[in-house]
Design goal:
By secondary structure, the protein is mainly alpha-helical. Helices cover 70% and strands 0% of the residues. The protein is built from three helices and no strands. It is elongated, with a radius of gyration of 18 Å.
């Protein structure tokens, strides 16, 4: 009867964590699209070019958003380790 609504304790932290996971997934998708485009012999197909451009645009948008929010990840990406 007199219960108060429970507030979300740290909404920024949860949204930042979701942003980082989405950013990492977008990076993997972009890398996969680049590899597919390079692997196909006839890489002039507009579908592959469009798919790669879309994946790049998604990643760059999320990256800019993470920079604006000043979000820093705690993990090192595989692309950095492999080099």
């Amino acid at each position: 009867m007199f219960k108060r609504k429970q507030k979300i304790k740290h909404p920024k932290a949860t949204y930042d964590e979701q942003l980082l996971t989405t950013l990492n997934v977008a990076k993997v998708d972009w890398d996969r699209a680049k590899q597919n485009q390079e692997a196909v012999y006839d890489n002039n197909t507009s579908e592959l070019v469009t798919q790669t451009a879309l994946a790049r645009a998604k990643y760059l948008y999320l990256y800019r958003e993470a920079r604006l929010r000043q979000v820093h990840g705690q993990t090192i990406q595989r692309s950095v380790i492999d080099k």
